[in-house]
Structure formats: structure tokens, C-alpha cells
Amino acid sequence: MIMREEIKGAVEAILFARAERVSADELVEILDVPLLELKPILREMMVEYREANRGIQIILEDGYYTLCSKPDYSDILSRMIRPVKRRLSSAALETLALIAYRQPITRAEIESIRGVKGDKTISGLLERGLIEEVGIKPVVGKPILYGTGEEFLRAFGLASLQELPGLEEE
Amino acid sequence: MIMREEIKGAVEAILFARAERVSADELVEILDVPLLELKPILREMMVEYREANRGIQIILEDGYYTLCSKPDYSDILSRMIRPVKRRLSSAALETLALIAYRQPITRAEIESIRGVKGDKTISGLLERGLIEEVGIKPVVGKPILYGTGEEFLRAFGLASLQELPGLEEE
Amino acid sequence: MAYLVDLEAFHGPLDLLLYLIEKNEVELDDIPVAVITEQYMHYLSVTGDYDLERMGDFLLMASYLLNLKSKLLLPRAIMSEGEEEEDPRIDLMQKLIEYKKYKTAAQWLLELENGLLPRVFFRQASEDLVIEEQLLTNSVSLLRAYRAILRRMPEADELYQIPDEDISIQEKMQQIMLALNNPAREIWMQQLFEGISRRREALALFLALLELIRLQKVTAIQEDNNEDIKIYLRVELSHDYA
């Protein structure tokens, strides 16, 4: 029988090694520990990570657990992480912002708010996994609906979509 | 002045996010803490990671620090690397079938036979290693020729291309 | 020039308008389309940057502004209930406010990306832990997919067995001329196509016939709607065809 502390160690090892989100079900399967037993352990771990000597945390989003750095260290880390990725153009950022806040949204809606054509920008964002096709709008023409993709939270260092700064309405 | 516990958190965050070895000098530079002060903190951390509830550890090699999972969990981690089962879409299967039986073949030829555009399908198959670029067709436009890739035989459990089922109708 | 605007830095008419308004350089009633256009022409002549796509973007922007101006100049239509049509400036103002919201949000994203706002970092998945992908398929389903394609495209096999060079329209023209080398100097069109089973060959023959008609070497005459078409030789056979 695996001990409680060992389960914690195992969970940390799994989340670290996977480097991607892992569902509770998958943890149950890998660890062979019932969900009812695992859930409180995960909660306990999330609290323990709050201590000052820890630089990482577990975030829970949509039933998936992910290990990431604490926001307290964002300036230190952004200094360190070399910008290897291509910069996003301001057109891309604007389009992405629209999709992030208004998802699901069609290309026509994006274009009407931005006042310019955006096919190229959208396909660029799709290619990078920052957005994805999330459905079809049930109107004439059956336009594709876009939403943020898996890469979005990673690229902008957000623990969840709820962390997007609020848009104050004037 | 940054506190001892905060330094620990920062080191953990750095080693986590970097995902590769970091030298002591680099840590000194990033954290702006003298090496003499940093060394004992790192030693202390390495001891702390030995606790049962930790799944990761810091290893020191050649003056470089790396964060990695503990060997204690290697069997659990290997359980995690189980194959993810995925189905090929019918478009992908058709395209792959064409390439397998007609190789080498250009994209235009595939599209003309299937009667639909196939850029996405082809790039998906390329990404998975099921097909690869095998040459250039010496005609106007110099189109790329595709053939089956290394992954193809493995995925379909074939010892060689000769083992592809014959085309004669039953 | 009154307005020195770096046109390249702007992304669309709303972006440009927002900038001009915020700098208090223009009023919505008086958008300097001519000046902006002049500056753009100047920019083009100096840089020689004739990027068609960007020029298209500029045209779109200029026409948007012109449309707005014209709406402001024209007396507003009186609706049936006696209400006035909505002031286009109100619509534009709303658009600008909406656009500005997302421009700000885009700035946040940029700051998040660069760590200027508190953010978290994720670990790059290490290469040695690739999740293996197992395809739920087998070679039989592959064959089935291929057969399905073949059934849909009966011509497909043939298409690839005949090299393009095989059928030359020039040759087909010669063939038609030879077929007309009979005492009557005429032939039913259907006769020309006898024995041709391949679609590409039939097409080549037809194109050859059209070319001969264009060159006025032959004439095609259909006496009646239900009659077959007859091809007549118009020129004397040259030694090329004999």
C-alpha cells in the first residue's frame, strides 16, 4: 500500500515529468489510488505549495492539474527566458484579445470590430495553437466560431481564462 | 533584500521553468545574490527535496543544477508513457491509402483524385511521420512527391511495403 | 503637412482614427482623408514599398473614411415616423469605444507575454517523454479506403497511365484532315470519334476539331437540330496531311 506522502511525491513527479495538464482520472489510473482518496491529497498539496520556499504551484482548471511557476517570480523568469518565439504582431494580439474575451466569435465579427480583414492573422494564430475552431455558428453561411486554444494559457502565463484582466465598460 | 526562503522559491521556479541545467554563476546573475550566500541555500534545498512528499530533486553535476524527477518514481512514470489511442479521420485514411498505393505522388494528384483540398490532411500525416517528402516531380511548378514515412509500417504493423494487401478484387 | 502620421504603424481605419482623435488632431466632422492619402502616396514614392496587400488595406481604410465623410455631408434621411436617421458619428463612436477596449486588452496580452504583468511559466515538455501515439487502424482499412476512392473515380487509373505527351492536338488535327481525305471531302463528326474510348483522347480530338474550325480549314454544319454534325473540308489538302 502506497503511503499518503508517497502519493504526493508521485503526483509531483508525474505533473513535473508530463509538463502538461493531467486529468484527475489519469492520475487515478497511473497511481492506482481511488479518486475519493486522491482528491483531498491534491487539495492538501495545493495548499502546501503556497509556502514561501516553493517556487511552483499546482493549478486546477477544468478538472485538469498542471504544475507551473508562481506569479511572484514572473519578473525574474521573464528576464531569464530567452525570447525564442516569434513576436506576435499587434494585429495578431488585437485579434487574439478579441477572441479571448468574446469567444466563441466568428471571423466576420472580429473583422467588423477591428475594421480590417483578418484571414491571414487568424490562420497564423490557428497554426500556433493560440486559437482553435470551436464550432459553427447556426446562421446563414455557417461561419466557423473561434476560441482560444490550449497554447493560449501557456503562452501568456495564465492559470485559467478567469485570470484575464477585466474589461471595464465605459 | 530578498529573504532566504524566497530565494529558495525563486531557484525552484527558475530550475522548473528552464527545464535544463543552470550554472551557479547564472543563478547568481539572475537572482542578484552573492555565490557565497547562494551555495549553502542550494545545499539546503537539495536536502529538503529528499523528503517523502517530494517527487522532484535537484541534481548538481559539473557545477550545473538541474531539476528532475526522483528515480523512486520511475516505474510510475513509465506507466504514464502509455500510448494514446487515436483514430485517423476518414480523410486522413483515404489520403494515406492513396499515398501508400500510388507513391510517389504529388499533392495536386491526390487532390484531383479525392476531389477536395488536402493541405491540412497532408501536413497532419507529415507531422505524425506517416508520410514524408520523397522528392520533387520534374514538371512545371516542381511539386513535392510524397511517399510513406518511417512511422507508416510501424503504425500498420507491416514488415514491408510489399505486405500491403493486394488490390485485386476478391 | 498638418498631420504627420506614420501610416505603417496603424492597423486599419479605426486604429488610425483612434490615434488622431486621442491626439486631438482631428474632429469626427473633419477627417482629413485627402491629407492622409497624400501622405500615403508620399510614403509610397519615398520607400517604393508597393506591397499590394498593404496598398489594399490602405484603400479599404480610405474608402471607409470617405464613406463616413459623405454620410456626414449628406442631409440625413427622414424616416417614415418622422425620426431622423441615426447620426453616423454615434455609430462610429460606439465602434471606436468597442475597438479601444480590445486594443487595451491586446496591450495586456503583450505585457503578460513579456512578464510585465504577473504571470506563471509552464515547463517545456521534455523530449524523452513523448506520448506515444497508437493509431487505431490496420492495413485492411487502408485498402478499403483506397478501393473506395477507386470506385468513386473510375477514370482515375487511366488518368495516371497515360502520359500527357501521349495525345497531341497537332496529331489529332492531322488525323481529322486525313479522315477528310475522301472523295466527298466530308465526314460525320460522330465518325471521327469512333473507336475512341479514352476521355482524354476524345477531348484532344475535339480540341483539334475546334482549332481546325478556327483556322478555317474545316466547317462544321448541322442541318437541323436533330441531325448529326457534318464536317466539311474547306481548304485543299496540303502535302502536310497527304
How would you characterize the overall build of this protein?
The complex is a heterotrimer, with two copies of chain A (170 residues) and one copy of chain C (242 residues). Chain A has 170 residues and is α+β, with helices and mostly antiparallel strands. Chain A folds into two domains: 4-79, Winged helix-like DNA-binding domain superfamily/Winged helix DNA-binding domain (Arc Repressor Mutant, subunit A), CATH 1.10.10; 90-163, Arc Repressor Mutant, subunit A, CATH 1.10.10.10. Helix content of chain A is 48%, strand content 16%. Chain A contains eight helices and six strands. Chain A has helices spanning 4-18, 24-31, 35-48, 74-80, 90-102, 107-114, 119-127, 150-156; strands at 22-23, 56-61, 64-69, 105-106, 131-136, 144-148. A three-stranded antiparallel sheet of chain A has the order 1-3-2. A three-stranded antiparallel sheet of chain A has the order 4-6-5. In chain A, a hairpin with a 7-residue loop joins β5 and β6. In chain A, α1 crosses α3 (35-48) and α5 crosses α7. Chain A is elongated, with a radius of gyration of 19 Å. The termini of chain A are far apart. Chain C has 242 residues and is mainly alpha-helical. In chain C, 51% of the residues lie in helices and 6% in strands. Chain C contains nine helices and four strands; from the N terminus they run ααααβαααβααββ. Chain C has helices at 13-22, 33-47, 52-73, 88-113, 139-152, 156-161, 169-179, 189-192, 199-214; strands at 133-135, 186-188, 218-221, 230-233. A three-stranded antiparallel sheet of chain C has the order 2-4-3. In chain C, a hairpin with an 8-residue loop joins β3 and β4. In chain C, α1 (13-22) packs across α4 (88-113), α2 (33-47) runs antiparallel to α3 (52-73) and α7 (169-179) crosses α9. The longest helix of chain C has 26 residues, at 88-113. The termini of chain C are far apart. The model of chain C is unreliable at 126-132 and 156-164 (pLDDT under 50). Chain A binds chain C through residues 16-20, 57, 59, 66-75, 77-79, 81, 88, 90-91, 93-94, 96-98, 100-101, 113-117, 154-159, 164-165, 167, 169-170, and chain C through 11-15, 57, 60-61, 64, 95, 97-99, 101-110, 112-126, 129. β4 (84-86) of chain B pairs parallel with β1 (133-135) of chain C.
